[in-house]
Amino acid sequence: MTLTLAAVYAPIALMGGITGSLFKEFALTLAGAVFVSGIIALTLSPMMCSKMLKANEQPGKFEAKVHHFLDGMTERYARMLGGVMKVRPVIITFAVIVFVSLPVLFKFIPSELAPAEDKGVIVMMGTAPSTANLDFIQNTMAEVNQKLADQPEVEFSQVFSGVPKSNQAFGIASLVPWSEREASQADIVKRMTGEVKDIPGMAVTAFQMPELPGASSGLPIQFVITTPNNFESLFQVASDVLAEVKSNSMFVYSDMDLNFDSATMKINIDKDKAGAYGVTMQDIGITLGTMMADGYVNRIDLDGRSYEVIPQVERKYRLNPESIKVTTCAQPTVKRCRWAL
What we know:
The protein is α+β, with helices and mostly antiparallel strands.
């Protein structure tokens, strides 16, 4: 029995993927514990019994009843075993049928790494075009948040625009306790998916919290498409594959990391004027990158909280390409700085 248990649990440590990572320590610990237990049962336990246990020639009433019960159980087991051995061909035939049906049962019996459970939380993820600004995302997600609030099972909902990327939004809703609702978490997710899929301007998806957070390195199914041709042909083929995936109702969320929707702006510099003021193209590039981008240069501490320091011009100078033609900014050491393109 000891060797059987060790032989069953030890191979789990050799499994790959997330299953092997989760159960490797458990399998090795259990197999080692069973093996050590078997050695102790064959060596140390008999010696300790010979030293600590003494024979009792006159057992008490409780001990006599226990012995009587165990003896009766042993006799009943012996009679059942004898009856089974008399019909050995039937038992062997039944065993063969069970072994033959194992592959069929293994195929049809559902299996999963971590069973889904109702945690009382649903998550929304929205993706807008790369050219969308924060106002557009906030207005669209406000409609999503309103749809969440209208659900009778939702107790609280909140959306965050620009998270985790600048053109994405993240929403979360907590549900009322199980005793106060009839619909399950999966039913609510399915209902919300149908309500938000037709929201214009953004692709919004509802899904449940993962059972093993941080256990995966991406979506469960991923495709890698390669080609020796140019990126335009690759984008066309990938778009066709993405369209086929979206048409299948079995997929809840789908995305493609190759996009041709990034905003591009060409700036013509008056080189004569720049040369007259001694301004190089590098100076212009650094200035535009610093004042228009959202990279932070440092962190400050305010009331015990850390905040990023992000140098940028006022938002009214970043709303459209025409806004950067003439831009002014105030500095502590320079009253006013100005550029003209």
